[in-house]
Amino acid sequence: MLPSENRLRRRQDFATAVKRGRRAGRPLLVVHLRTADHSAGQVDGYSDSHPHATEGLPSVRAGFVVSKAVGPAVVRNLVKRRLRHLVRERLAALPAGSLIVVRALPPAGSASYPDLAHDLDAALKRLLRTDPAAATGSGPTGSGR
Question: C or N: which end of the chain has fewer Cβ atoms within 10 Å?
Answer without folding.
Answer: C
